[in-house]
Amino acid sequence: MENFIVKDLMVPLSEYATVPEGSTLFEAIMALEKAQEQFQMTQYHHRAVLVLDKQNRVIGKVSQLNVLLAIEPQNEQTKKINDISKFGFSDPFITYLKKHYRPDDVSIEDLYMKAGKRPVEEFMQKPSAGEYVEENTPLETAIYQLVLGPHLSLLVTSGDDIVGILRLSDVFAAIFHTMKQIQTKKLHNQG
To answer: Which terminus of the chain, N or C, has fewer Cβ atoms within 10 Å?
Structure first.
């Protein structure tokens, strides 16, 4: 484990789900489905889609949570509820307000259709400074970044280019397998 560097565990950008800026949320979901079908490196599926600009640089990420937020019905009342939720009101109270002020005349199918037609830029998260890690960084340093964030993934760089994504699930799998090897070896030597 101590010899791993980030590029040993990263998913290359060429194997990750991506869409160009201006794509719809539905197109992003379809790209994610296609990547999940094609990517066989681990048992863990992709959970996000990277958004690329015209120069194929990563400008954002659409996660599964972003998709769920995109289908949440929006009106003036729900926007105000989102604003007041920042002031420490309890989750049950915010949930009650959202249920109470949810528009009655909107079907779930309408919400899905409307959200699917909207551009990904409305939902994507722009990467923060702490979400980048250089490909030759020791894995221990990347783990610190994942935990400190907390992040589910980090964008892997080589110079100024993003070349891959380091997923928490892959890091966890590497740690788990290393722990298992150490424990098995220790038990074998004791017996």
So the answer is: C
